[in-house]
Amino acid sequence: MFELEPLIRLGCFGGVLLLMMLWEWLAPRRPQHIGRLGRWPHNLLLVVINTLLLRLCFPLAAVGAALLAEERGWGLFNALSVPIWACVILSLLILDLLIYLQHRLFHAVPLLWRLHRMHHADLEFDVTTGLRFHPIEILLSMVLKLAAVTLLGAPALAVLLFEVLLNATAMFNHGNVGLPKRLDKWLRLMLVTPDMHRVHHSVIPSETDSNFGFNLPWWDRLFNTYQAQPQAGQLGMTIGLNQFRNPTELRLHRLLLQPFRRSSDS
User: Fold this and answer.
1) What transmembrane ranges does the database entry give (predicted)?
2) In which residue ranges of the chain is pLDDT below 50?
3) Which of 29, 94, 110, 211 is deepest in the core (most CB within 10 A)?
4) Dihedral of CA 232/44/102/151: which sign?
5) How far is residue 129's CA from residue 210's CA, in Å, rounded to a whole number?
């Protein structure tokens, strides 16, 4: 099964992406003022660049690191007699917590924020926003993930499930879609919903520094970073960052150079 890891991930990615695009087209949550042709090609090209870069720099990827750790007996779970089902569940929880903490770190450290802010500088919020990350951030994230997987001794099955789930939920909770209020209220007890994560993309700094979770919503509640709704409401809130409001910033070359500039005027 693990030999098919790239195909499994690609199939899940493509299926969820197409489903979210269709959902956004049929029932958008917010009107968009910048056309898809002005954003989507650049955001999707970043996915291609990041995927190729990861495969070039880390040919084993996270699943390969888990298999290697199991073979060599590295990591916590490989040193303990823990049932495989418990290892999988605990690995999923711990890896998700680490992604939450990593996300907060990329907001708190100025140098890391310069990389991560490209994700926040999108002037609209839809499924492709969940895919646009700077290549350097992607590489750093993979280094941290490989270290976590190896030290934890996470089973390869857990790592594969985590990668697929994280990718799918990131596209879901960045979707320009809405759920009935009652359903959203209950679902966000178990999963980060689009209305919950959209607050994180508000132009207001206090809202940007909330709702860091990508998959599980529990960490935001536990660490007091949860905010239920934006001050201006879901339809009235402004998406993006104050210093990057020029639509030319949505072009691929501007996205790649953005961490090295102070604002859209420099």
Assistant:
1) 6-23, 44-68, 80-101, 142-166
2) none
3) 211
4) positive
5) 17
